[in-house]
Amino acid sequence: MAHSTDYYETLGVSREASAEEIKKAFRRRARETHPDTSDHEDAEERFKALNEAYEVLADPQKRETYDRFGTADPRQTGFSGGSAGGGFGMGDLFSVFFDGMSGNFARQASPEGRDMSGQVVVTLLEAADGTEKEIRYNRLAECGTCDGTGAEPGGQVTMCPRCHGTGQVRTARRTIMGTFESVGPCERCEGTGQVVDPPCPTCQGDGRVRVTETVEVKVPPGVMDGVQLRVPGKGEAGLRGASGGDLIVQVRVAPHETLHRDGDDLHGQARVLFTVAALGGEITVDGLHGPVAAKVPAGVANGDTVSVKGEGMPRLRGSGSGDLIVHINIIVPKKLTKDQRRLMEELSASLGDGHEHSAFERIRDWLGV
Length: 369
Fold this sequence. Notes:
With 369 residues, the chain is an alpha+beta fold. 24% of the residues lie in helices and 30% in strands.
């Protein structure tokens, strides 16, 4: 059968195809045309034509010559080990037939169950006190009919006679380069190494069934946003009684209306009258569990902070709690009565700064607001 001498047509790519596109096209067609895998009578001829096209187009210099003159320097085709310019070589051969696994077609699938993931959202108060949250999800659980064995009640699970319990079989492949051995999953037992007889009618021999479950997740006091909690055994069940995975739950802490968390400390704000800021005193601020008393020292300035020990978040690891950090926002009244204004003017006079400022301006300067 005659084949096209257009190398681009042989590979099934456009003349503008990149080097990577050419390589992918060659690998794809090599699997289809190789004499050991193709049913075509002229498979060997097709494969040689494919190699000839790839050897030219994979080499930048040869490709340029071919694009310019419609031909390249004649040379012996086939598996020559490749050229320095990027032609076909041993690495390409293994990539075509073994997917870059150096002779291993596939690895035995693990019978162990996989971990699964979920998420719960808690308030800042729940994060401080600890709580329990429900999470509902779908998973592969142990079959109740066969207790996870995969065999019908009264049946049995035996070692696979073909792979002798390994779950893998070796296959020898003859190629024009010689004989290659590959290892792949056993088709008889589907890579498990076990044969069930007869299989469980509920799970069809898998030992697992898909269910919808609700799990209680214990959230510890002091948990931080993004922490992952592990619920043992609540992931995917293992194949035919193999060990199962865990459920990994990420905790997200919702923002609070008035408080901001920084590690184990909490931050909030308090509006303080300028008289309290000047004289000092005790104020009531919003804490996580309700009103909290905070002492304000005399002479505090706008933007200063005061701390209330132990009113922050419980420490997740260790004892005690963080602090509540209160940010001071000094309030200056916009309207005064006559008596208040007289008193303020007297105070302003006693604090005179030598500038022609109004009473309010002098007080604002003194307070730093």
